[in-house]
Amino acid sequence: MELFLEQLPHQEEALQCILKEFSQKDNSRRKAEANPDVQVKNFIDVKMETGTGKTYVYTRIMYELFAEYGLQKFIIVVPSLAIKEGTKNFIEAQYVQKHLNEVLKTNYTVALSVINSKDFETKKGRKTIPSHLKDFLDGSMHEKNTVFCLLINDAMLRSMETKEFDQTLLDSYSKIYPAIKAIKPIIIIDEPHRFKQDNKAMRSIQELAPQCILRFGATFPEIEVGTGKNKQKKIDYKNLVYDLNALSSFNQRLVKGVNIQYPSLIKEESSIYKVVGLTNTALTLKKDNKEYQIEKGELLPDDFGGNLYYVGGKEKLLSNGLNLESNMQLVSDVFLQSYQEILLKQAIDTHFKKEKENWEENIKTLSLFFIDDIKSYRNKENEGWLKQKFEELLKHKLEALIKEETNQEYKEFLKESLKNIGQTHAGYFAEDTGKADEEIQKQIDDILRNKSEMLSFKDKNSAWVVRRFFFSKWTLREGWDNPNIFVITKLRKSGSEISKIQEVGRGLRLPVNASGKRMSNTDKDYYLDLIIDWSEKDFAQSLKEEIVSDNKQLYKKITDELCDIVLHKQGKECTEKNRDELFISLLTEKIINREGEITNFEEFVKYLPEEYVLKENIITENGRKNSKVKLRKENWEKIRELWKQITKRFMVEYDQIPNEDLKNILKHSLKNNAFQLNSGTIVHKKLVVENGMLVIKETTEDLNFPVGTLPYGVFLQKLSMVTNIPVHIIHKAMSELYPDGVNKEQFNINSVNNINVNFEKEFAEYFSTRYEYNSLDFIAATSLMKDGVFLDEIEQNLLGLKEDKTFEVEKNYLYDKKVFDSGIEQDILKEAPQKEVLVFGKLPRRSVKVPLYTGGTTSPDFVYAIKNNKQVQVGLIVEAKSDNLREKEISAINAQEKYFKQFDKIKWKKVTSVNEFRNCLKSLIKEE
C-alpha cells in the first residue's frame, strides 16, 4: 500500500516562507562537487507542530532549492536512530519522489547516503572511506537531476570529526570535516530542542561551516537571559520564518484531538509520597509530615509493594527505571501490579472501541504502550509479567468480542488475532540495538520500517496483518510517529519533565485508511486517547498550558464569538447592540484598536471567564517563583522568650494498651461498611476548541470490573502496616467478627483505607485522655528560625495562599504583609488590635509543631502578645476553625488545648467566628 500525499495549505505556506529567505546564486567560483554560493541568513527556523508534516516540508525544500538555486548537497542531522529510520523511509519512498516530481514538474531523484556506526569499522588495518560518504561528497553538478543528501544522527556526526583515512576525499582531504566544508552544504536539523547552542552536536554542525542551517521542529531549545533575580528562560529562535504552533494546529484541525483518561481509585491523598531529598546515594521521601530516609539499594516503604528499591546514581533511578527529580510525587498505589493491570485493561477496552469505529472507515487502529522495564515485556527464560498479563487480558477480550460480533469480515480479523496472539504486539527498546534475534528484529522492522504494512489489514499475500500493539520504554517518545496510533498508554511516569506535546505527539497525526488516503478532521473528529495513571491527573492542564504558552495572544482580534463569551460572563444578551457597545468600550479603554485587534492582552483577559484564562508561571533559575513575606525582626525579638517557650519540643507518652482492648478497637473499625468493592471510576479530560480557545471538558464513568483484589495474607500485611497492629491480632479479630468469611473481592486497597480511617477514629477516642506530654531538652529548628536567629523572610505559602492588598499592615504586625487561607482568618486579620497588643500575627505552618496523639503534628493559626509596660504579660494563641470539623481537625484541637495548658502566661483558644475572637481578646486584656 502506498500513501497518497496532498498539497496542504499550511505546508505550502511554510515552503514559501523558507524560499523567501534565499536569493541570488554565484557559480563563478563553484567546484563541480560543491553547492553554489547563495545569499541567505545563517539560520532559518520553521516551527511545525508534531503531526503536521515537517518531514514532507524539509524533503520538498531540497527539491525546491535544487530547482531554483542549484543547491544540490544537503545534510540532515537527527537525534535518534528511530527518527533516522523514519526519515530514510520517507525520502526513499517511491510515492514521495513521484508526488514531488509531479508537483514541481521535474524528474529528480534523491541519492540518499545514510551513515551508520558500522561504516567506519576498519578492515585489515586499512582506514577506508565509507562508500556512502564518498558517494555523497563526490556527487557532481554534472548529475543534473540528482539531489545528494547525507542522513546522519548526532552521535555519528560527532564521531566523524577526528577520523582520518588512507585515501583522500575530493582529491585533497584526508579528514571528513574539511571535505564537507568544501562542498558548502545546507544542513537540516530535525528536533532542534535536542541541539542546544552550547552542546557538542551543535558545535560540530557549526564546525562544518554550512551556508545555512534549517531547523525544523515542534520544540526549540531554551536559553537563559538576564542575571540574578531577572534571569528568565526564553525560546532560542534564531530566525523564525514560520510558526505553526500547537494551538493553531488544533484550531485548524490539522491534528487529532486529545482525550486524556485515568482510573481514579484513591480516596484521599494518603498514599502520596513527595521526593524532598535526592542524591546519587540517598533518597528522602515525605508523607503526612513523616520523612523516610532510603539509602542506595534499600527498599522503598512497604506501600510500594515490598520490592521497589532505590538504585541512585547520576540519573537517580528507582529499580523500575523511573528517573526521580526533587519535588516529584510518587503515589504508592500506582506502583502496585494490580493498578498496572487496570491500565492495561482500560487500554485494551479503549483500543477495541476505537477499532470497531474505525473499521467502518477502513482505518486500521494501532496502540502504543510506554512501559517501565524491558524485562517485564521481554524475558526469554521466564516470560515477563507484563507480556503475560497483556496477552491474558487480550485473549479474554478477543473471546468476548468474537461471541458478539456480527460483521463476518471483522470477526475473521478478530479470530486470526486470537489464533496468533503473540503476533498482535511488538516491542522496540534501546537495548535491542545490535541484537541478532530474528523475532526481535522483525518487531523492530515493523515498528520502524514497515509503516505501510502496519497500516494495512492484509499483506501482499492477502494474509491478515494482526500486529497493532507496540511497546517501548522511551525510545519512541520523540521523532517517531504513526498516523494510526489512536491509543497511547503510559505504564510509567515521565520521570524528568519532558514536553507534554512530545508525549502525545506520537499519535497526533491524522489517520490514513487502508488505501493510503489521508483522512480529514473537518467531517469527523478524530481523537487520540492518552491513558495515564492517577498521579499524573493534572496532565490535561499541563498540556493545555503548554499548547497555549507559546501563543500568549490567544485571540488576535475581537470577533462576534469572543464578544458573546464576554457578554455571557457579564450576564447580558448576545445582541448586535450589546456587541457594538462592548466594542466601543474596549476601544475607549485602548484594549483594542479600530480594526478590532487586541493590543492589550493583559487587560483583555480580565473580561474573560476563568476557564478561558491561562495562568502563567514566572520562571527563574530556581524554578517557579514563590512570593516571599518579610519578617519584621524587631517585632519578633519582643516575643523571643515566648517563642522559645512554645517551640520547645515535647514527646507523646501513651498509657499501656492491653491486646484485648486493641482487638476490640479493631473489631469496631471492621464494621460500618468498611469492606467495599474497589470499582473506581475512569476520568476523561478532553481538550476541545471552542471559539478559538482550548478548553478541558471533564466527564467520568464507572469501571465495570472489580480491581485491586489482594490475597488475604497480603491484605492482612497491608492493614498491619497502616495500623501498626500485629497480623495475628488482626486475623483473630476478623475470625471472631466474620466466622463465615468476607467476599474475597473486598480485600483491596480501598477496604484497607476505610478500615484505617475507622481505626484512627476509634484509636483517637480511646487515647483522647490516655497520654501525656513530656518535655525534651532541646528546641528544634522551625520555619522561622535558624541557629537561634530569626530569618529575614519566608515563603508566603507557609502563611497563606491569598493576599488582600487593601489590608492595613500595622506597625506591630509580625510581617510586611497580611496573607491568609480561609475566610475566618481574613476576618480576624481585618480586626485592628487594641493598644494593649504588643505584637501580633499569623503563625506559619510547621512552626510550633504540637505533637498529635494520632501521629504527626499541628500548628495553631495566630499569636497575640498582650503587653504591660512594654513587656509581654501574656500570650494568646488562637486556632481559627469552622464549626464543621473533620475527625483529624478535632484531634488537632484536642491536642492543642492539652498542650498549651502546660505553659504559664499562655492562653489558648479555638474560635469559629470573628466575634468570638474579638470577645476573647477583650476578655483577656481586661483580666490582665
UniProtKB/TrEMBL annotation:
Keywords, comma-separated and alphabetical: Endonuclease, Hydrolase, Nuclease
List the protein's name. Type III restriction-modification system endonuclease
Q: Does the keyword Iron-sulfur apply?
A: no
Which stretches make up the Helicase/UvrB N-terminal domain?
Answer: 8-221
Instruction: List, for all copies, the residue spans of the domain called Type III restriction enzyme C-terminal endonuclease.
Output: 812-913
Q: Name one Pfam family in it.
A: ResIII
Q: Name one GO molecular function term.
A: endonuclease activity
Report TM segments. none
